[in-house]
Design a protein that fits this description.
Elements: H1 2-10, H2 31-44, E1 51-58, E2 64-69, E3 75-79, E4 84-88, E5 95-100, E6 112-117, H3 121-124, E7 126-132, E8 137-143, E9 158-164, E10 175-177, E11 183-186, E12 205-209, E13 226-229, E14 234-239, E15 245-249, E16 255-260, E17 286-289, E18 295-301, E19 304-309, E20 315-319, E21 330-332, E22 340-345, E23 350-355, E24 371-376
Length: 377
């Protein structure tokens, strides 16, 4: 993997305010049946929805960023600035620190960012993490041993991918395993705009990797992990019921974006921000003025993409049409809980929602930051 990264690198503001093919087309059911079911679900999503905060699951969190639900119960939450991963009992709110991830070098928007569970977590107990080191952004995996004492449950990080450009701003950081079992990572251009259009750079991209950190089979550019390019700063990744990938992206001064991702496509930054209708650039399916959004995490539930907004301090509902286009977005919780960083599907009609008021850009209130359980329709 390191050799592949080295080859890639040599061959080549406002912010934050299964085995399928490369498009994640693998399915456990027949493609026709899955598509028919998906169309029925998405066409049934009403233009107007509703949101109800059911309860505060946990509070008193410091710079929470990524969240990963455990299959047997419990939520893992990363702390950007402290470099720790904490387990939350979603029934009682009890917090247990697993340990500190060695090598994390927090500064500005960098630190310990996204986390994800191995597709084989039931047997290997591996946690994947994206973090900023002293020299770059990288992806590691660590063994989670629940039998050890609190604070000592994380094994030493095994670096599977490195060399992603770092900066005080625009470090990307969201990671997620797709329906195809591959690892996807959203990266930022680290404040160096030119990296986004440079297909030989890892900055301003969505990457697609094997769980071992190699460029995944079927990636659009041979020998490269680059899946899509022309991004400014990607922090949200989610798949719909047809296994189509969507990503949120921070704009500069005018338009934030929600994009439908196609392998090999160019999303325009820095030549385009928001919809441009320019040849060769893929336009977003939804866009917002930057003071209304600054979209970080996204989640898919029943035909709708839910988007957590930082500067906008609200939760956006974006209904999808059967074609993958979007209906008009609808805002909820505006200003009620401050900056919203991460939203993760919680099963049924619920999501976990993570606030981000202790990140240096918010105004913390008593109890911040917190994880909320939210009913969404």
């Amino acid at each position: 993997m390191l050799a592949a990264t080295a080859l890639l690198l040599t061959a080549g503001c406002s912010s934050d305010g299964g085995g399928g093919g490369p498009n994640g087309s693998g399915s456990a059911t027949s493609p026709g049946a899955a598509a028919s079911s998906a169309r029925a679900t998405e066409s049934a999503a009403p233009a107007k929805g509703s949101v109800r905060v059911l309860r505060t699951v946990a509070e008193g969190l410091k710079t929470p960023w990524g969240l990963a639900p455990l299959p047997g119960g419990g939520l893992l939450v990363s702390s950007r600035d402290e470099g720790t991963i904490t387990r939350i009992d979603e029934r009682t709110g009890r917090k247990t620190e697993l340990g500190k991830v060695s090598g994390v070098s927090p500064a500005g928007e960098g630190g310990l960012l996204g986390i994800a569970l191995s597709p084989d977590y039931a047997s290997d107990h591996m946690i994947y993490a994206y973090f900023t080191s002293a020299s770059d952004n990288r992806i590691v995996r660590m063994l989670y041993d629940e039998q050890k004492p609190a604070g000592e449950q994380l094994g030493a990080p095994d670096t599977i991918f490195k060399g992603i450009p770092k900066g005080i701003i625009h470090n990307g950081g969201r990671i997620a395993f797709g329906p195809d079992g591959m690892l996807y990572a959203g990266t930022g251009e680290s404040g160096n705009r030119g990296l986004a259009q440079d297909k030989k750079s890892l900055g301003g991209k969505i990457l697609r990797l094997t769980p071992e950190g190699e460029p995944a089979p079927g990636d659009p550019f041979p020998g490269s992990p680059v899946y899509s390019y022309g991004h400014r700063n990607v922090q949200g990744l989610a798949w719909d019921s047809r296994q189509r990938l969507f990503a949120s992206e921070f704009g500069q001064d005018t338009w934030d974006e929600l994009n439908a991702i196609k392998p090999g496509d160019n999303y325009g930054w820095p030549q385009a921000e928001g919809r441009s209708s320019r040849a060769g650039f893929h336009d977003p399916i939804a866009q917002w003025h930057t003071d209304e959004a600054s979209p970080s995490g996204i989640a898919y539930v029943d035909g709708v993409i839910w988007t957590a907004a930082l500067k906008g301090r609200r939760l956006w509902r974006v209904p999808l049409r059967g074609t993958g286009a979007a209906a008009a977005p609808q805002a909820f919780l505006t200003g009620e809980y401050g900056r919203l960083r991460t939203v993760v599907a919680a099963g049924g009609d619920k999501v976990w929602l993570v606030t981000s008021n202790t990140d240096g850009r918010g105004t913390p209130k008593k109890g911040d930051d917190r994880v909320l359980e939210v009913e969404v329709k």
